């Protein structure tokens, strides 16, 4: 039998090959699936099917068991699972009494089977489900491969006692191997922005029996609020406008690996309730579905927010907070990691230079002293970006303090004291503690600049980020003008 005519114009979806010697059924199935958007071809024998597969491999093959020139097993066995990423997915067409053959076909790598006589609407649903599952499997395999490479490279660099303690906690938690049917413990990672909570989550995942399983990172702050529920939990076809097909959510896609919920404090209260249900009952329900899917992944959450304060303010659910806070690891800020800023700077400088084929960089003593003096309000992330910029713009020359663009050691201390204007200003700077003097100088600068942080930072001789850090540390937000 010759291949069928080209599919109708609307058939722009996945390519299907129907291998069946019953011409009426094959053509009817091709027309029905073509109307659903699939690009269908028909082959009436193994020989025609082999030629078609060699010429243009389809996404899916509907394969009859009994054909004029052999058995469908021959074609199935010639394309074993894992052969290549382009291997088509197979669905077997079985007649009454061929159930044992169908079971054997599943062992050989068939995704599913359909019994004849075939209901065409049922066939379309089976094809849709099988292709969706195959696509998800490829996405997860690809993500797993990328994650394995990323996990091999990730490191928590540092020799300070504070970092060593956090790293040892993470590795101990990662080595925990819960019994079958018992959910792994949820871990909460706390720390300022830029302290490396994403790296910590990967170290935890890499340290134990789950290292070969998927690692799915979800940035709760960057997902669009109108789509975050569907991204987390998945959706069924038609669940909302634009939901063209079934989609598995990120939590479900993690399978029995690790889900890292970064910036968890940004989730709204309604989604917090749904997440709590997932953690408590270990099931997830896709948007638009009435069925629940089991969840076996380990959950790791990270935030730079004060969740206890958010609970008191009614911005975070208390029950979810207590559920998450069973085991927590606090990542120290860089300013509390004595010596680590220099170690990290050397590592990032060498890494950047080798990535771009530049000479190995050298930090001069003045630059090293400046790196160790600076408080790093943006933590490791700020340090990394600063070093990368300095290396790329340095042209291979030794990196001096000027290349880094960091402020002097204590520029505020050298500024003249402003004129006294109130009871708090009547005291001499000599009679103040360091915190009191710093607070006094910043308040005066902000008052002079009418709350303009950039101008106040210029007058104080510090960077805007450094001044922002001091404002937050001293809780001087009230010194800033209210937003319009």
From TrEMBL:
One of its GO terms (molecular function) is ATP binding. InterPro entries: AAA+_ATPase (IPR003593), AAA_lid_NorR (IPR058031), CheY-like_superfamily (IPR011006), Homeodomain-like_sf (IPR009057), HTH_Fis (IPR002197), P-loop_NTPase (IPR027417), Sig_transdc_resp-reg_receiver (IPR001789), Sigma_54_int (IPR002078). Residues 15-131 form the Response regulatory domain. Transmembrane segments: none annotated. GO terms for biological process: phosphorelay signal transduction system; regulation of DNA-templated transcription. Pfam families: AAA_lid_14, HTH_8, Response_reg, Sigma54_activat. PANTHER family: TRANSCRIPTIONAL REGULATORY PROTEIN (PTHR32071). It comes from the Bacteria. It comes from Aquariibacter albus. Keywords: ATP-binding, Nucleotide-binding, Phosphoprotein, Transcription, Transcription regulation. This is Sigma-54-dependent Fis family transcriptional regulator. Gene3D superfamilies: 1.10.8.60, 3.40.50.2300, Homeodomain-like, P-loop containing nucleotide triphosphate hydrolases. CDD domains: AAA (cd00009). The modification 4-aspartylphosphate is found at residue 64. Residues 156-392 form the Sigma-54 factor interaction domain.
């Amino acid at each position: 039998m010759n291949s069928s005519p080209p599919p109708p114009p609307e058939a722009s979806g996945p390519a299907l090959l129907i291998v069946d010697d019953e011409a009426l059924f094959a053509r009817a199935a091709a027309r029905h699936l073509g109307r659903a958007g699939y690009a269908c071809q028909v082959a009436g024998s193994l020989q025609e099917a082999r030629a078609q597969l060699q010429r243009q491999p389809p996404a899916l093959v509907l394969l009859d068991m009994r054909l004029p020139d052999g058995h469908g097993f021959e074609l199935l066995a010639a394309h074993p699972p894992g052969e290549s990423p382009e291997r088509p997915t197979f669905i077997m067409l079985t007649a009454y009494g061929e159930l044992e053959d169908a079971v054997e076909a599943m062992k050989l790598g068939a995704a599913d089977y359909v019994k004849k006589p075939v209901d065409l609407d049922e066939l379309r649903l089976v094809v849709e489900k099988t292709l969706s599952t195959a696509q998800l499997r490829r996405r997860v395999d690809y993500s797993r491969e990328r994650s394995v490479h990323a996990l091999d490279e990730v490191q928590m660099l540092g020799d300070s006692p504070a970092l060593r303690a956090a790293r040892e906690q993470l590795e101990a938690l990662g080595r925990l191997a819960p019994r079958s049917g018992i959910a792994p413990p949820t871990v909460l990672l706390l720390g300022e922005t830029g302290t490396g909570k994403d790296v910590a989550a990967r170290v935890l995942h890499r340290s134990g029996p789950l290292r070969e399983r998927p690692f799915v990172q979800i940035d709760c702050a960057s997902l669009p609020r109108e789509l975050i529920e569907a991204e987390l939990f998945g959706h069924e076809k038609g669940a909302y406008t634009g939901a063209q097909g079934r989609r598995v959510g990120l939590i479900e896609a993690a399978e029995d690996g690790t889900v890292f919920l970064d910036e968890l404090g940004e989730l709204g209260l309604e989604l917090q309730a749904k997440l709590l249900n997932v953690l408590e009952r270990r099931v997830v329900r896709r948007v638009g579905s009435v069925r629940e899917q089991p969840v076996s992944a380990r959950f790791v959450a990270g935030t730079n927010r004060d969740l206890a304060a958010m609970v008191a303010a009614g911005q975070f659910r208390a029950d979810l907070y207590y559920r998450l806070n069973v085991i927590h690891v606090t990542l120290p800020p860089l300013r509390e990691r004595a010596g680590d800023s220099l170690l990290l700077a050397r590592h990032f400088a060498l890494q950047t230079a080798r990535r771009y084929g530049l000479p190995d960089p050298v930090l001069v003593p003045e630059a090293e002293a400046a790196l160790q003096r600076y408080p790093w309000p943006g933590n490791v992330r700020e340090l990394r970006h600063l070093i990368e910029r300095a290396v790329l713009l340095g042209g291979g020359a030794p990196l001096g303090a000027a290349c880094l663009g960091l402020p002097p050691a204590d520029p505020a201390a050298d500024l003249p004291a402003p004129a006294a204007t109130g009871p708090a200003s009547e005291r001499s700077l000599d009679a103040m503690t360091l915190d009191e003097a710093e607070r006094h100088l910043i308040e005066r600068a902000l008052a002079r600049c009418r709350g303009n942080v950039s101008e106040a930072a210029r007058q104080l001789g510090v960077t805007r980020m450094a001044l922002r850090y001091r404002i937050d540390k001293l809780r001087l937000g009230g010194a800033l003008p209210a937003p319009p």
